[in-house]
């Protein structure tokens, strides 16, 4: 790590798996017999908002019963101690990184514990259900709130900041993600193009595993503390 100053860490569902949160593709990608790709879209929400609200209300309730694990804790230690630039970009919509203490963090696919108003464009902290069409705390209109989640076909958040950090990175580390969903799956190539070394920490080789300079395979709660400490 001697020549390394700027680090970008990308995390996916595998980081939260050992906290008891199901990953997407390991669970067969199914929920109530629907493919996740058919629920997590703006078209699905327009077609059947109750179905989409039920899906997210259940998951919003579930994550509040989970706790960060040793991988989240190790990344928070790295964030606190690393003197150079560091950015943790998570695809996860749970709040386990921040509950572990990470601060330099971007939720590129949104957050379960936010609701977004399609009328006034404000985001509000949200822990309860949305299916009963509550009023937006910001503008007061009923039935305008949706989960603050980036669905397929929508633009992930804060991409300019992410690409800027990738271009400056000396080290890019991808943890617990299958590499199946873009644009995150392309970050390793962006980082390489900018001259970064690249490391994958995952239970198994990911779809784009061959793009990494080095790969270590095993559970995140073992691999991440090993790498950080
Ligand atoms: C462990 C472990 C342990 C398990 N320890 N590891 C055709 C080609 C290319 C692209 C497209 C295409 N058609 C459409 C697209 C674009 C589309 C896309 O990528 N689709 C693919 C399915 C092909 N992408 C989009 O639409 C995105 N927007 C977009 O592209 O806008 C245009 C744009 C262009 C250019 C620049 C910028 C923008 C939006 C994507 C939104 C993704 N949203 C979801 C759903 C959120 C809702 C919800 O939570 O309900 O986000 S999809 C789902 O997948 C979720 C995740 O964040 C994301 C990634 O999944 P992740 O985290 O990798 O989980 P898994 O389950 O796949 O993998 C877990 C891994 O962990 C596995 O490898 C395990 O082995 C491992 N593991 N236990 C360590 N203990």
UniProtKB/TrEMBL annotation:
The gene is cobB. NAD-dependent lysine deacetylase and desuccinylase that specifically removes acetyl and succinyl groups on target proteins. Modulates the activities of several proteins which are inactive in their acylated form. Substrate binds at residues 56, 59. Coiled coil: none annotated. The active site is at residue 109. It comes from Sphingopyxis panaciterrulae. The lineage of its organism: Bacteria, Pseudomonadati, Pseudomonadota, Alphaproteobacteria, Sphingomonadales. Pfam families: SIR2 (PF02146). GO terms for cellular component: cytoplasm. NCBIfam families: PRK00481.1-5 (NF001755). Belongs to the sirtuin family. Class III subfamily. NAD(+) binds at residues 12-31, 91-94, 176-178, 202-204, 220. InterPro entries: DHS-like_NAD/FAD-binding_dom (IPR029035), NAD-dep_sirtuin_deacylases (IPR050134), Sirtuin (IPR003000), Sirtuin_cat_small_dom_sf (IPR026591), Sirtuin_class_III (IPR027546), Ssirtuin_cat_dom (IPR026590). This is NAD-dependent protein deacylase. GO terms for molecular function: histone deacetylase activity, NAD-dependent; NAD+ binding; protein-malonyllysine demalonylase activity; protein-succinyllysine desuccinylase activity; zinc ion binding. Its EC number is 2.3.1.286. It is found in: Cytoplasm. PANTHER family: NAD-DEPENDENT PROTEIN DEACYLASE, NAD-DEPENDENT PROTEIN DEACYLASE SIRTUIN-5, MITOCHONDRIAL-RELATED. Binds 1 zinc ion per subunit. PROSITE patterns: SIRTUIN (PS50305). Keywords: Cytoplasm, Hydrolase, Metal-binding, NAD, Transferase, Zinc.
């Amino acid at each position: 790590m001697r020549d390394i100053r700027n680090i970008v860490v990308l995390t996916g569902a595998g980081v939260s798996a050992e906290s008891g949160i199901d990953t997407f593709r390991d669970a067969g990608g199914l929920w109530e017999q629907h493919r996740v790709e058919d629920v997590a879209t703006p078209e699905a929400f327009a077609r059947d908002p109750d179905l989409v609200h039920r899906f997210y209300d259940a998951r919003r309730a579930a994550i509040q019963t989970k706790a960060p694990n040793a991988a989240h804790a190790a990344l928070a230690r790295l964030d606190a101690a690393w003197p150079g630039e560091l950015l943790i970009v998570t695809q996860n919509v749970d709040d386990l990184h921040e509950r572990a203490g990470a601060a330099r963090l971007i939720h590129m696919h949104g957050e379960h514990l936010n609701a977004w108003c399609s009328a006034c464009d404000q985001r509000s902290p949200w822990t309860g259900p949305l299916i009963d069409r509550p009023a937006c705390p910001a503008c007061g209109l009923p039935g305008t709130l949706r989960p603050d989640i980036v669905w397929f076909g929508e633009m992930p958040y804060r991409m300019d900041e992410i690409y800027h950090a990738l271009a400056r990175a000396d080290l890019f580390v991808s943890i617990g993600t299958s590499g199946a969903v873009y644009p995150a799956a392309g970050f390793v190539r962006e980082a390489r193009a900018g001259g970064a070394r690249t490391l994958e920490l995952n239970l198994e080789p990911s779809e784009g595993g061959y793009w990494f300079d080095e790969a270590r395979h095993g559970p995140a709660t073992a691999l991440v503390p090993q790498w950080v400490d």
